[in-house]
Amino acid sequence: MTGQLIVGLDVSSRARAEQLVEQLGDAVDFYKIGYQCFYGADGLALGKSLIAAGKKVFFDLKLLDIDNTVEQGVAAFAQTGAAMLTVHAYPKTMRAAAKAAAGTGLCVLGVTVLTSMDDADVKEAGYERDAAGLVALRAQQARDAGIGGIVSSPHEAEMVRTIVGPKMQIVTPGIRPTGAAAGDQKRVMGPAEALGAGATHLVVARPIIEAPNPAAAARAILAEMNTGSRLA
Predict the structure, then answer these.
(1) Which terminal residue of the chain, N or C, has fewer Cβ atoms less than 10 Å from its own Cβ?
(2) 194 — alpha (psi -120 to 50), left (phi > 0) or beta?
(3) Are 130 and 117 contacting, i.e. CB atoms less than 8 angstroms apart?
(4) What single-letter DSSP state applies at residue 212?
(5) Using CA atoms, how far apart are residues 68 and 76, in angstroms rounded to an integer?
(6) Is-catalytic flag, 99?
(7) Span 165-221, pLDDT tens digits
């Protein structure tokens, strides 16, 4: 169960990130390094140090570029021993990433629709589908591209599972435990509900890293997860 919880190290200094990892101890063994930490806290070196210490690392960098650039970038991340890496869920990008990750331990995840976006945001971006419809399309394309999983709102997890089948990973941000504020997220869900809907991994940042006792907050979320997991 611990491995299904991914804590987002959304901080701007390596010292703070390492402090959080120390505070969380054995309560957490999987960490996400996104833009803030990667660029502001020497995130690549931090990630390598976490991997060397036996932790799992998810680099959430949402790669998008020409095929060769994506392929070479994914290959470089695969060499670090990272567990997961995100790319934007465009068919050519996902195919290039799948090619680079083949035969490695890296799970490439296609980002469908950000959890900070709702139907109005998707429409403003120029899509004729609603958010769920766009997620469905990109889930199908991710499956066909042969990558390891996708990132989606927990609200679409059950639908996505019917599209991608039983083997692909479904990683869901936008998780808010009991009593937590939604913040800038628009499509949120509780931990037990998300796992019950078919998510394999939950990404949680602010409710843990901003808590007075991060380890206690993580354990409380793990307790909630235990009531809803299909994988437990």
Answers:
(1) C
(2) alpha
(3) no
(4) S
(5) 12
(6) no
(7) 999 999 999 887 765 554 545 556 889 999 999 999 999 999 999 999 999 999 999
